[in-house]
Structure formats: C-alpha cells, structure tokens
C-alpha cells in the first residue's frame, strides 16, 4: 500500500516541490490583493463609494419582498446596516419588509400598519439611503424633511434617527419650537435631515433668512392622516407651497388617509398603498386586550382613583380630553397620594417641562402619566402596561392611537375605556366598525373608593385648586360640546351639578354656552310629523360649525409646535386672568408637589373630615405595605376582571350614589348690581385723586369726570340705586365725546406733519396701508369667528360675579396687540406666526389679488422684506391707521 504525504512518518522531509507550489499560490494571491488595494487607494473615496452605490442601485430592482427577513437582505449601505445592528435591529417587521424596497426604488409610498409595528424605521432607512445614494454633504443643504404632529414624537423620531444613522456623515436637526428661534435659525441651513413640527417649520420658512428647501429630495409625513387633517391644513398648504414639486413623498400612519383631496395637495406620483393589516381581523395589535366600562360622569374620578390604587406596580397612561382636566386632576391625585408616582403631560406646559416629563416616564418602571392627546400618537414609551381612556376619544381612530401606546412590538398590554351611558352605544358601534375588539366589563363595587369628600376638603382649603376645578369643569363640558359626533357626545345629557360635586365643587360654575343652549330649546321644540311636540331638540352645533371650531382649536394646537409657549395658552391666560408668572408658578408647584409626594408619609397636610382621615389611613397603610401586598392588590383587580365577576353595576354602589347638592351648600348668588346697590345705600364716598398740569390747572384723575355733558344734566336718581338705562346713555355720550376728541387730535397731528413727507411717501405708503387695512379687516373677521369658539373663556369670565346681561368681547384686549411683559420670545414668535398663518389663509382665498405682491417660494422672502420696509411716521399704530384711512378717503 502506497503512503500519502500526510501519512508520512514524522521524521520524513516535506516534498519541496509541493511546498514551493503552495507558497507560490499564496504569494500571487497576496500580490493581486495588494495590487487591487493600490488601485483602490489611487481612486478618491467618493469614487469608490459611487461604485458601491451603483452596485446597490442595480440590486434595487431585484428586491423580492418574499425573500426579505432581515435588514441585511435589502441592498443597504454598510453604514446604515451597521447602525441598525448596533441598535439591535436585525429582523424586519411586516411594514418594513413591504415598504423599504418600494421607497428605495424612489416611489411615493402610503404606509399603514397597526400601532407599534415599526413604521419609524420603515421610513428612516430609506431616508438615510436616499441621501447616501446622492452622496449628500452639509453644503447641499436640506435633503429630507420629516414632519411629525407633536413635539414629543418629533423628538422621539430624531433620537431613533441619531441612533440608526450615526455612521453616516449627514447632519440632522430637530426643530420643534419651545427653543430659541435665533439659535435654530443659525443652524438650520446646515441641516440635511430636518425632523420638525409643522408650525415651527413654517415659522422658519417665513422668518429665517436664507432658509429654503429647494434641494429637497424627500418629504416624510409621520402620522400623515393627522398632519393632513383640518387642524394643520393651512400650515401644511403653506409649507407645501415652499417645497419643490419634484421629490419623493412617504406617508405613514396607523390610520391612514385615502382621501383623494388630501393626497392631491401633496402632488403624489402614482403612490403605492401599503396597508399591511388591511385584511387582518382586527385593526389593533393582537397582544392588546381591550375592555370598556360604563359609569356615570360623577363617578369617573373615584373609578380612576380605585384603578390606580389597584395597579400600583404598573406603568399606565391616562388620557383626558383637555389640558385643564389634566392640570386639575394631576394636582388632586398628587394630593390623594394613591401610592404610585403621577406625571402630567399636556400642551400648556413649557417645553423643558414636557421633555422632562417625557424622559421621566420613559425611565420609570411604575408610574402613571396623565396626558392629553398630545401623547396619543406615535410615542413609544417602553413597557406601558395599561392605557386608560378617562374621557371618550373623539373617534375610533383616536381610540386606536391612544390604545396603541401599549402592546407595542410583540409586547402585551391592556386598554380600558371609560364610557358614559350616553356614549356607550355610539362609541362601541364605531369601534366595532373599525375592527376594534372591545368587551364590556363591570367594576367590582367593593374595590371602589369614593374620593369626593376628600376633593371637597382640598378645595375648601385651597382657592387656587378650586379655580382649577372650575376650569376643569368648564373645559370638559366645552370639549363635549365641541365634539363633532353628536350621536355620541350630547352635552345636554351630562349630569352637570353632580359632575361639579364630583370635582369637589359645591356649586357648578356658570357655563355661558350651556345657558344659551338651555334657553334655545324652548324656541326649538321639535315637532313630529303628526304635529306633536316631541320635546326640545338636543342643543347642538351644526357639523360645519363644529368642524370650524375644531379646526380652529387644532390649528392652535399645531401652532404650539412653533414656539416656547402656545398662543392658545396666551389667549387662555387673557380670559382666565392667569399671568405668565402664574403659569411658571404652576410648573414649579408641579415639581414641589412631586417632591412633596416623596415625603408625604411625614407631612400630612390633608384634613380632617372623618372620611378623609379614613382614606388617609388607607394610604398610609398602603405605603407601609410590602411588595407582596401590592401584588396582592393587583391580583385582586385582575382576578375580578378576568373571571368577570363584576357582578354589580356601579349604580348599585352605595358609596358612589348620586349626591344631591345640599341646600346649605347652594348659596344665593350675589350679583354685582346688588352689591353696588348695597354700597350706594351706605353712602360711601370714593377717594378722589387730583393732579395739576404744568400750567397749574386742576385735573381730577379718579373717579373720572364726565366730559361729554354738563354737570347739571347728571342728576342723581336716588330712588332706585343705579339706573342702568341712564348709565348706558351716559356712557354712550362719553364714547361719542371721546371719539370726537380723538379725531381732533389726529387732525392736529396731520397738520403738524411736514407736507413734503406725504408727497414723497404717499403712493407707496397708501398702497401698503390699504393692503394692511384689508388684511386687518379680514383678520378681525376671522377673530370674530374664532371668538365664537372661545366659549370656555367666556364662560370662565362668567365666574367673576359680573352682571351677565351680555359680555362685550370688545372689552377683551385685542389679541393682535396684546403683549404681556412676561411673555417669552417664543410666545412672541407664536403670535407672529399665527398672524402670518392667518394671512396665508387669506392669501390662499384671495390668491389672485395678493400673488403679485407676495410671490411664493424663492422670491417670497424678498417680497416680504420689501413690503415690510419700516415707515416711521412718528405716530402710534392706531393713529397711523386713522391717518391712512383719512388719506385714502381724500384720494377717492
Ligand atoms: N425591526 C425591528 N426589530 C426590533 N424592534 C423593532 C423593529 N422595528 C421597530 N421596533 C421597535 O418597535 C417599537 C415600535 O416601533 P415604532 O415606534 O416605529 O412603531 P409605529 O408603527 O411607528 O407605532 P405608532 O403607530 O404608534 O407610531 C419600537 O420600540 C421599536 O424600537
């Protein structure tokens, strides 16, 4: 048998020929590698990259969705793949699988998939690849725009982008308002990928010199249906005007729009519709368990409290319909000390605070977040166990987004919806139509803890809290009043006095629009076909009216994204007499309360009723409990729920029975007129303030002297206190007199001006002023319409004991002029932008008229500078206007 080389004996010498051949092969391979490397090195880096890119692009056409399981199965750049791997993203989700390929091929995509299914990466990966393909550099400017409806969502998307795109060389920026505009403006021109909210973006488009989007390659709308809805309509139209038509557009949402009208605005080119779960049995994640309970409005707070007490180790989000509800209930619940830390997130908070709360809730393992719908979409808080919808969502889509904050990406979660009896039928029907599987469950009455007494005692001690309760009350009622779907939301069915009591208020605050509505039905009795009067028609607005209001409010919400503080907040402050300092105080207090909460076991500030003491003991007891006991409580709740032994209806629960307002607690309201009469009877003399002019003339500053009529006509009518008719007449006379005086003053000013000045400036100034006046007129019209929608503010004004014969909106400061010294820069900006926006809205309507003056896109800014050339007349704005009106009249 012959021996092989390997089986040679250890002492045998290797075959030199074979060894040489082996060495030669190795050597030549090494040489060729070196040669190739040298060749490569000679090429500039960009050229090597270009070759790689062209290789990748050739593979785009070959993408086969069915063969894709991992990100590395897509022809992606090494930099993107590395970023994905480092962030632990390897396998693709269904929406990523189906849309990334299409987007890489340059198609417009409308992607829809359930909440928590990974839509963010489905658009971020193509974003990175689009700029990589074009070898984009910072000098190329803005390449991709990602628009999100809320600041928090934009921030979250930006963070994912940073994580996944960290190996690329592009610059990315986050523009969401609430920060220094100047600082943003300095950097915005160097940003390649901009993540932003619509309002703030438009503000930069309008106000930041040199900012343009002419090179834009891709536009992404996250939560597209929300961004395209009426609330953002004007802003989005104005933004789209400034974008190049030739671009790729990606739209993503869990509830996608197919409205042709909406999509036409974006000028999509043969878009690909990818509805991943269109054929799925349910439109919500399979891992999400969804239930609803029905309870009376006045019981909801106790239900929430009881829920929190039995879920102390869980992470939950509770959704409310208004900021003021969140503000009040957050404070109250902090004082109630349920034993789990509570956070609040809403649009009236300062941006810093919002960010703090967001991050804190991300970090916490067990906590409760009280939030408005700003947290409803897109936010990816880790490991949320429960979503509780304290107030009924406006529609099924909002429900889906809210509930989708739990059970994200393969995790479990539970959602509980609290419905009023009047909301049950309509809402459940809507949910089932949208393929949302909700089941009714009952509450275990033994687990319910009535907190109304405690709330009453809090309010009795704290005037500020009481005012918050009143605002919360009005705000909730207004939110129901403004809801579009009148089948579900019927304000006339709300148990108003009982609701007030449940908030801890002895008397329900007056709500102006409700009073109006209550008067209305008597005139609007519904007559049946056989001419029988059936009853008063449910007071409601027409759909158009509601839509208008809603658009107004959501638009305001969108404008919030622009600046540090909301313009809406400013208006609220006007109406509610809350100053900016107070707002800040609120935030500080929020912090204090939280700190206080940590120390609560030592500091017992809560009083003193038997009931509250009892509850206090319970809380103390709870805090002393060990983990086991907490779990026990948790389990108790689950046991009840899972075994469906909520045998009794809430109504049967004695502790939560309807409370009739006690007679002693209902005080007779003292009107201002009555008070004034009382004062007059006492014959008080008001102090006088008298000053002297330079000429030594005596002037009575206070009380103001009547200037319009001679003293002898001012006969006092002692008989019946104040004669309102006479007072009214007198005021009208005064008014006339003042106007006349003012006119005279203006004329005198005109005469004193240099006549040559007019001749030089007249044509241009007259033209500009005419235009400005027209715009102001339109704005006033718009303001009037908006004023209608501010019933809450009006209602709040009603709480002062003003005589309510009729509130005159003209007594409110002009929102265009209003500027409190405490307002931040960003607030100023917001106000400006809201004006700009309104102007844009008008421009849209009168486009033919204004287009010549204000061309769009590139020369838009130039035109703006021209038109805004300052014209110093030395007069005030009002005088300026009067002057120009006068000139125009003379001209015509
Ligand atoms: N391929 C993936 N592999 C692992 N985890 C992923 C993947 N894609 C997404 N995720 C994770 O899934 C979670 C949800 O993703 P994302 O926020 O993108 O969902 P979404 O569809 O945008 O939800 P929503 O509709 O609520 O906005 C995130 O925590 C994300 O990190």
Automatic annotation (TrEMBL):
Q: Where is the Helicase ATP-binding domain?
A: 100-274
Enzyme Commission number(s) from the entry? 3.6.4.13
Reactions catalysed, semicolon-separated, are:
ATP + H2O = ADP + phosphate + H(+)
Positions of the Helicase C-terminal domain: 287-449
Please list the residue ranges that the record marks as compositionally biased, kind Basic and acidic residues. 725-741, 769-791, 829-838
User: Which residues are in the DEAD-box RNA helicase Q domain?
Assistant: 69-97
Q: Does the keyword Ribosomal protein apply?
A: no
Find motif (Q motif) and give its ranges: 69-97
| Domain statement | The Q motif is unique to and characteristic of the DEAD box family of RNA helicases and controls ATP binding and hydrolysis.
Q: What is this protein called?
A: ATP-dependent RNA helicase
Q: Which organism is it from?
A: Equus caballus (Horse)
Q: What is the lineage of its organism?
A: Eukaryota, Metazoa, Chordata, Craniata, Vertebrata
Record gene name:
DDX10
